[in-house]
Amino acid sequence: MENYILNIKREHSSWGARKIRERLIRRFSGIKIPAKSTIHAVLDRYGLVERRGRPRRRAQGTTLSLGKSPNELWCTDYKGEFLLGNRQYCYPLTVTDHASRYLLCCEALSSTREEYAFTVFERLFQERGLPANIRSDNGVPFASAHALFNLSKLAVWWLRLGIGIERIQPGHPQQNGPHERMHLTLKKETTKPAAANFLQQQARFEDFIEVFHQERPHEALDMKCPAEVYQPSTRVYKGLPDIDYPFHDKVIVVTNCGRICLERKKINFSSVFAGQAVGIKEVHDDIWLVSFMDYDLGYFDLDTRVLEPLDNPFGPRLLPM
User: Fold this and answer.
1) At the N or C end, where does the chain have fewer CB atoms within 10 A?
2) How many CB atoms lie within 10 A of CB 32?
3) Alpha carbon of residue 134 to chain centroid
């Protein structure tokens, strides 16, 4: 079917998805024919769609940066959960600066719920500024297995702030090696045995951070302490900037249930974008392109009302470990 679509386009270069679909309907009776938006996405994938307006910019995906300077790369993860003395589970959320090994935070949380992570990162951004990139694994709340491009609300928020997202490959924790090694030291010195409750455990984490920053020499830093190398980011956190879509026909706010509403029709999009403004542009007759910031995400038409995603602009589809 895909080859037939491409052959028709090569034979009739001016034909769009609507005409190609009509040819398919006449050629293949009794077979389910792809939607116009699907056909358009196929043509786009093979570079057979003429783009109008701004150039399309893509993210670098999950290419891992070197993080040679402070705040060029932050690394984050949850140190494995453990039981406190009161029989409650503790999930420490940790963030380090890759270049300086500075432990930006170690927060004793009662779960990995997304709203808790939002609170921790917002406070951290207010105190330390914004990094260029954040590297994580593919688990919640950093990624979502069933969402568009496996994004999470937390990842979308980072993108809105101009922070690049990096994901390690599943089963390759060595790609976040310095952070994992810090976890081994943290576990040994603060959780063996665990404290009686969250308040006492957080106090242990704070004591560990003080020594880790000010007293503990680090071989990767030529035996300097992290506090001697790290400095706050010059990118000040000022909340979410406005999004502008000057080259699109409409700006639509995604509903809380993850839909785009256009001409009284609802198109299923993704709930991780709930409350976010996206730009839509009619690129051909009744075929619409959906963009978020500088990222083109996919096409839909008002007949099928189904989004046909483009190639993942945020890198390979990585499922949670």
Assistant:
1) C
2) 7
3) 9
Q: Indicate the residue type of 126.
A: Q
Q: Is the dihedral of CA 103, 104, 108, 114 positive or negative?
A: negative
Assigned token pair, 241: 């900037």
Residue 192 near residue 185, CB atoms below 8 Å: no
Could you tell me the pLDDT band of residue 57, with boundaries at 50, 70 and 90?
A: very low
The per-residue pLDDT for range 201-228, each reduced to its tens digit, is 999 999 999 999 998 888 888 889 999 9
Buried b (16+ CB within 10 A) or exposed e, 238-267: eeeeeeebeebeeebebeeebbbebeeeeb
pLDDT grade, residue 62 (50/70/90)?
low
How confident is the model at residue 250, as a pLDDT? 94
**Structural domain spans, the chain:** 2-45, 74-229, 250-309
Strand partners, 301: 287
CA-nearest of 281, 309, 278 to 294 is 278
Token pair 């927060």: residue = 107
Q: Let me know: does 110 contact 82? Beta carbons within 8 Å.
A: no
- Residue 66: CB atoms within 10 Å: 9
Taking the C-alpha atoms of residue 213 and residue 205, their distance in angstroms, rounded to an integer, is 12
The angle subtended at Cα 84 by Cα 109 and Cα 155, nearest 5°, is: 20
* Other beta carbons less than 10 A from residue 137's beta carbon: 24
